[in-house]
Amino acid sequence: MERPIVTGILSYGMSGRVFHAPFVDTHSSFQFYAVTERSKKNAAKRYPGIISYNSIEELVEDPKIELVIVNTPNHLHYEHTKLALSAGKHVLVEKPFTATVAQAKELFELGKANECKVMVYQNRRWDSDFQSIKNVVEHGKLGDLVEVHFRFDRYRKEISQKYFKEEPLPASGLSYDLGPHLLDQIIALFGKPDSYVKTTGTYRPESKVDDFFNVHLKYPKGLNVFVTGNLQVVNPLPSFVLHGTKGSFVKKRTDVQEAQLEKAMSPLDPKYGFEPHGSEGILTTLKADGSHLTHYNTALKGNYTRLFDAVFECIRLDVPYPIKEDEILCQLEILES
Predict the structure, then answer these.
(1) What number of other Cβ atoms are within 10 A of residue 314's Cβ?
(2) Same domain for 50 and 189?
């Protein structure tokens, strides 16, 4: 067996605690070695024996660390990723990778020059609900797709206490917060669009950043894709709606991984990643006689561990990372437009 990858996490806030530490700790191919905690030292309570550094610079300079997980606020991703790559570390970077295409290209080139892997953490490719969508699309159950809607609906009138989400900093606002998830899923399914139109809006009182976005992406054969995020939706719509020449598929956002991880469930728990009964997607297809056939589609297991499998294979075995450089550049081109 290949030796575990010695890993440091730049922040033990929500993303470090929920989306990274549990996987680095339970995955046999990684060693959870260090984290940065500027004030409260909480990580060791759950992970005894790890090093808690007071600064990002201290962690990055540790010669034992091979992989740095960059999960600091969005506007610092470029700076901290460049710091880690310059120190000869592989990086796994939270979404959005950077604020601009130019920054992303610079970091990808720096990684190649320093023989370091540059990987972007697009975990929602391994959501259970998206796996259902992917299965339906790839098996051609809907025929030729005509219209596709992916969306995040929430109602949040108040301004977040997290300054980096609400101040007009690089990569702030809802489009850079939720847009990378939705756009990555669409690009993973359909590739780069032929054209797109992006619309943003600001509706919350005293908001300084966008809290609504919509991107209309046009693909070959007349496929229209609509990606939407909205913080002013009291009654959320289904998150996934797909219409094709042979049928329709409708599904709510039902992946349970984040909620389970928030409650400290281990990714190794047998119940991890399985949607509860009643979360099924609705597949409606046409029979030969023109009548409708309805099927309740049970989702596959959601499993972010597969992303870390891919990180290990990329670093140790030189297997191409599934979230490709050109896909990230396409995403950022749309976000930056």
Answers:
(1) 18
(2) no
Entry pTM: 0.96
Q: Between 325-336 and 101-113, two packed helices, what is the crossing angle to 10 degrees?
A: 160
In this structure, the strands spanning 67-70 and 51-53 are unpaired
Residue 29 and residue 159 in one domain? no
CA distance 69 to 55: 14
CA 124 vs. chain centroid, Å, equals: 5
pLDDT in tens, 99-123: 999 999 999 999 999 999 999 999 9
Residues 228, 231, 233, 238, Cα dihedral to 10°? 40
Task: Please tell me whether residues 273 and 325 are part of one structural domain.
Answer: no
Q: Whose structure tokens read 């389970």?
A: 260
Number of domains within the chain: 2
Rounded CA separation 107/98 (Å): 9
Give the model confidence (pLDDT) of 239-248 as tens digits. Answer: 999 999 999 9
Q: Which residue has the tokens 């009643």?
A: 278
